[in-house]
Amino acid sequence: MTECNQQTFGFQALGSRRVEADFSGGHLSSDGGVLLLREMDRHLGLCDKLARCFSDTRNQSFVEHTLPVMIRQRVLGLALGYEDLNDHDRLRSDPLLAAACGNPDPLGESRRHEQDQGKALAGKSTLNRLELGAAQKGGKYRRINADAHAISTLLLEEGVRAIPRQSQVIVLDFDATDDPIHGNQEDRFFHGYYREYCYLPLYCFCGDIPLWSELRKSDRDASRGTLEALQKIIPAIHQRLGDEIIIIVRGDSGFCRDDIMAWIESQPGVHYVFGLARNARLQVLLDPEFENVRAAHAAACELARLEGREQPGSSRGFAEFEYRTKDSWSRARRVIGKAEITGDKDNPRFIVTDLTGDEPWAKDLPALASGRNLYEKFYCARGDMENRIKEQQLDLFADRTSTTLFRSNQMRLWFSTFAYLLLARLRGVALRGTVLARATVGTIRLRLLKVAAMVKVSVRRVHVRLAGAFPLQAVFATARERLMT
User: What share of the chain has pLDDT > 70, as a percent?
Assistant: First the structure.
């Protein structure tokens, strides 16, 4: 790529005035909202805890970028929308980002080498060595190593801490998604369903709080690893919130596996609602309800015709029955079938659950009161969890798994997940009751974090002047007050 050395950029004149622009503004930042992220991270101690999951064997007398500062630079960079490590070759000169990362020399004036002075943070090569070195032990240049178990445990602990203590019933949403890869990454496989080479990461969310993010090869069943994850997640929740809390595990038909359901059934206070793939036997069991729905749909269409109204688009009914597979299930289970007619097509759907509807704790929960409600109001609500995955992958670049090593790609997924957790906690703690209380992390970044700032660093203070025309000044002030309390 040809490097552009143009210093001044001309634009269409404004009346008799020339309009020109250049990059000579000095210590300016487009990320004034990073101050809120800094306070949120300080409150949680998230990046410091994450840094303790690494071992640093570098000669500290030559180290200019400490491990906590680099971790914070990577996580905050993702939260601010900088997915590419190349971006940090410019961002390393941003004094506001340096201050947010905890660098005591935000202007980089004390750097050892003259060519590095004015660049307070690490560049792309240093951050790349962090990711690659943390993923591969040994070797001359592998001075930073990561404890994968400790990182996974930290994510779970911090996620469980974010669940309100007064919760009586919580829902754990599991889902897998495709992560396309376009090179010769380690452990690449072609997935027949997605029709591409990809990884198959496994996620677990409780509301908008991530508890689990595991990068997996795509040559396996979508549910692989779910039972092992549950066996860690459930005890962590009980330890934090007590044994009385009710936990409902929810997922699509890819998680309807006998070993998962049998283990959940053996755990007191833990239940499941899973999608169930349709087959000929299930269709036969649902046929009587389909006959009723067809008759009702025909009558509704005829009445609409007589009254000159628009024809109804669909009709549906629900049936419940005991069902057991021929070989794969160890016992019969409650299945709820949806018999829906859309236009002239049948649309059968099924879910399986160990909930009976008679649980004492469920009497005040309308979504669990009947089979119809369990499907329409509870199971279908899992679609919101798919929005969390979209935020994770589209807004926080969890699918940027472009390094050669599988473990370093897992590291990138974890960095993205911790960035999501930081923003989710900002949304839940500092933005509750504001116009951004239910905003996506992409909207929060665009409307709250992307604010122009002028930075002046002196011996006594770092003075940040935010744009006077910033529309959400009141929201910014509210968030800052809550974070400082």
Answer: 97
- How distant, in Å, are the alpha carbons of 44, 82, 245 from that of 163? 14, 28, 12
Condensed to tens digits (0 to 9), the pLDDT of residues 47-60 reads 999 999 998 888 88
Residue 181 three-state SS: coil
Q: Which tokens sit at 97? A: 């980002």
> Do 371 and 316 fall into the same domain?
yes
The answer to whether 378 and 368 are in contact (CB under 8 A) is yes
Q: Does the pLDDT at position 237 exceed 90?
A: yes
In a domain, 415, yes or no: no
Residue ranges with strand state E in 264-384: 270-275, 314-323, 333-342, 345-346, 349-353
Percent of the chain whose predicted confidence (pLDDT) is above 90: 68
The C-alpha atoms of residue 253 and residue 47 are separated, in whole angstroms, by 36
| Cα atoms found within 13 Å of the Cα of residue 449, Cβ hemisphere only | 28
pLDDT surpasses 80 at 298? yes
- Count CB atoms within 10 A of the CB of residue 115: 7
- What was the pLDDT predicted at 40? 96
Cβ contact 105:448 at 8 Å? no
pTM across the whole model: 0.91
Task: For residue 140, tell me if it sits in a domain.
Answer: yes
Q: Work out whether strand 169-176 and strand 246-251 pair parallel, antiparallel, or are unpaired.
A: parallel
Residue 10 near residue 18, CB atoms below 8 Å: yes
**Token pair of 90 as six digits:** 């410019």
Which 3 state secondary structure label does DSSP give 228? helix
Phi, psi of 189 (to 5 degrees): -145, 155
The residue length of the chain stands at: 485
Torsion, CA 400, CA 155, CA 223, CA 180, rounded to 10: 0
Position 17 in a domain? no
